[in-house]
Amino acid sequence: MLKTTFATKQLIIALGLGLAALFTATSAQAAVLTYQGDTTNETTWRRTAPGNPPTLISGEKDGNLGMSVPYSVFDFTVDQSGLYNISGESEPTPPANRKWDIFLALYQDSFNPTEQLTNVLVANTTTNGSTVTFNRELVTGQKYFLVTTGRRVNDFGQFSNTISGLGQITPIPESDSIPAMLVTGGITLLLYKRKLGLKI
After folding, report:
1. Tens digits of per-residue pLDDT, 90-137?
2. Cα 143 versus chain centre, distance
3. Pick the residue with more confidence: 9 or 141?
4. Would you give the distance in Å from CA 165 to the centre of its chain?
5. Which residue from 103, 118, 107 is spatially nearest to 159, judged by alpha carbons?
């Protein structure tokens, strides 16, 4: 458990800023969850093509085998329906030390890597190896599966994903082994960012 040891003056400033953020920005995000992972040496799948929702599996349009790439899955729910932003960023991978082209696919209810078009909501990628992002309406109580993979067969490695929106985002199953950080509310957000040295 994290312990906070702020001076009274710093706490009052943080509290004031947090309250101001809560009451002045109606579009402010109430919750942010960031987690890290690595697709290196993970199981491969023949990913979907990009789409909203996708209607093709990679290579299907051209009549070839498409891209079979390593992937990682993150299961979560939200406790408030609304618009959520989902983004992913790849990290530089040795030996070339370059960022790889990340690809995200969001599923609802269940995910089966051999039934790529079942339950898929949206899939998006980037061609610059940096970040990919999209918005999606999520529903309270539904199970969601965020699949992180690569655009091409040589696109894999470490990544950092962020889910943000109106309600609390909860990993499934809740486990200490999941390298995720959940921040809820303006005040808590400031305290955690100060303690952990995160960038605003």
Report:
1. 988 777 778 889 999 999 999 999 999 999 999 998 766 678 999 999
2. 14
3. 141
4. 11
5. 103
Helix (H, G, I), strand (E, B) or coil at 135: strand
User: Two tokens at 48?
Assistant: 């979907």
Residue given tokens 């067969």 in the structure block: 153
Considering the chain, what is the average pLDDT of its residues? 75
Q: How many CB atoms lie within 10 A of CB 177?
A: 7
Residues 6+ apart with CB under 8 A from 40: 70, 93, 156, 157, 158
Cα-Cα-Cα-Cα dihedral sign, residues 163, 169, 175, 180: positive
Specify whether the CB–CB gap between 72 and 149 falls below 8 A: yes
Query: Amino acid identity of 50?
Result: P
Sign of the C-alpha dihedral computed for residues 94, 70, 137 and 35 taken in this order: negative
d(CA 51, CA 49): 6
Residue 18 pLDDT: 42
Q: Is 38 within 8 Å of 72 (Cβ atoms)?
A: yes
